[in-house]
Design brief:
Helix content: 55-70%
Shape: globular
Distance between the termini: 29 Å
Radius of gyration: 14 Å
Largest sheet: none
């Protein structure tokens, strides 16, 4: 969970929504770093959330077979047909 927290902190501090308007290269670096974090989290969480993690691997064009080694993501990847991994829980 430390990696999740670090990823969230990195995203919030780097403010990609601002970088997209001011510095597209910095924006691309931020998004790539977040994507690599997500790719590696998909390996770590696969034993407890296999369906969601397999969707992430499919989106990022990663091998389905899990590995405990660090994963990188090919640059210039276009994400297509992305759907939410989880449905929102509605309060009653």
């Amino acid at each position: 969970m430390d990696l999740v927290e670090l990823g969230n902190k990195f995203y919030d501090e780097k403010q990609p929504w601002i970088a997209k308007k001011e510095n597209i290269e910095e924006f691309n670096n931020i998004i790539y770093t977040c994507t690599v974090i997500i790719a590696n989290l998909s390996n770590l969480f696969e034993p407890v959330m296999p369906t969601a993690c397999n969707k992430i691997k499919e989106y990022l064009k990663l091998p389905k077979e899990g590995s405990w080694e660090f994963v990188t993501v090919q640059g210039g990847l276009k994400l297509e047909n992305i759907e939410p991994l989880f449905s929102r829980i509605e309060k009653k």
